[in-house]
Amino acid sequence: xxxxxxxxxxxxxxxxxxxxxxxxxxxxxxxxxxxxxxxxxxxxxxxxxxxxxxxxxxxxxxxxxxxxxxxxxxxxxxxxxxxxxxxxxxxxxxxxxxxxxxxxxxxxxxxxxxxxxxxxxxxxxxxxxxxxxxxxxxxxxxxxxxxxxxxxxxxxxxxxxxxxxxxxxxxxxxxxxxxxxxxxxxxxxxxxxxxxxxxxxxxxxxxxxxxxxxxxxxxxxxxxxxxxxxxxxxxxxxxxxxxxxxxxxxxxxxxxxxxxxxxxxxxxxxxxxxxxxxxxxxxxxxxxxxxxxxxxxxxxxxxxxxxxxxxxxxxxxxxxxxxxxxxxxxxxxxxxxxxxxxxxxxxxxxxxxxxxxxxxxxxxxxxxxxxxxxxxxxxxxxxxxxxxxxxxxxxxxxxxxxxxxxxx
Length: 408
Description:
408 residues, nine-stranded mixed sheet, 18% strand
């Protein structure tokens, strides 16, 4: 019923969204003599804020068509090299191959409500130094129920298949939520002596052990318990979508939780956006709109994946205490002895607390000290762990050096 009410609300808001869009065009049209006046800009700003407030944000595009390397501009082509019901493996292929082959890098994007395009800045930062592949997770409401379930075990199986497709000497980077399944997959591959075992594993802002410096998100999961989430967070997709009848954790609920955590900050950002529009400050307004176009674009997760993740990662801390199991096989991170490990945390991260990602080093206790590193990025929150100026200037050079070292 909740999802149906959300759809009804979206349908009711559609006429207002259309009217606001038309009005915005009127007040910004160059042939309108009032468009350059304070009145015109004020009306246009008001209509744009209204249009954005009532809009349903769809999956954005990566839109990466080229990069600059040295003095050369290299064209980039985005292609899907592996297509599964719940994920596409994207390859950002360079038009010209460098004289020295670049290391293959599999970026495992979060499957936690936002689309993989949240990593656009991360992809752009790493493209000059690596042959980049990204997991593009599919919105669960777009996957027909006939395609079957998708849980944490299936997620790990997808990782096996992708790493097999890329072959040996691949580096894998997990951003936030996938740190747990990626560590589990590498541990299982190590135990099986899999020939496609990654050269290195980069875990960034991930909940490896949420008992350390628990955040509001961690505490909320423990206080409520998995049955509460089953009753209150899992709903069926309405008949209007291809995945009708599938049980999901809706993206709009996830987004509501994220916004509520920092409501004043988001309200302040939209006030700033309004005044930037009124003042005609295009650069600052564009930057804020670009961020929120991404932030407000959300996807549904399958109910079974969400509940299993909540229970295993945030309530039972299964990987940290040694009880994590994949299809009946216990996951043993101590089996990792060859895959180099790099962990990255943000000083102000309010999603994954300090020490939660670094805990991976204790779990991978048989990995030589020479093959492990940790980086604490000062002055950044969760998003800044994998994006932004601090990431580009300070973290990326360390990642590149680490990958090159692991490749040698």
